[in-house]
UniProtKB/TrEMBL annotation:
PTM comment, free text: Binds 1 heme group per subunit.
Xref: Gene3D superfamilies: Cytochrome c/b562 (1.20.120.10)
GO biological-process terms attached to the record: electron transport chain
Positions contributing to heme c binding: C139, C142, H143
Organism this protein belongs to: Pseudomonas protegens (strain DSM 19095 / LMG 27888 / CFBP 6595 / CHA0)
Single GO term (MF): heme binding
Gene Ontology annotations for the cellular component aspect, listed alphabetically: periplasmic space
Protein name: Putative cytochrome
Amino acid sequence: MTLKRLSVVLLACLTLSACGGVDPNSPLGQRKAIFKQMLKTGEDLGGMLRGRIPFDGARFAEGAVKLDSLSHEPWKHFPEVKEEDHSSATDDVWRKQARFQELARTLEAATGELVTISQVQPYKASNLGPAVQKVEDACSACHKEFRNH
């Protein structure tokens, strides 16, 4: 009998915890997943340049290509009208679409430049560092204007 009660309580807890999650197929779930991948990839690149992770030129170049690919993806998951959810995006994303799109293009350009620079060998932090910083600055600029912190 105790095992049955424990099972019912556990099942109830799991059901309730699932209710608070974000649907991974929703626009919010899609963009959150992409932003999370972008963050991880960018942290790895920055970590290599800052000595937190051993530098691996080939892995760095692959990461730059991945980041560039990802940088083109999240924008299509911002619907024309803000959905009623717990998004970190401010209402200005929808009110100031031209500026939001401008910052998206700035990030895409910065990641494209990073890919180009990451192809130059021998790899030098003096070449890669400013390109990574430009990507980080583009992310930060958009977050300052369009993200609830």
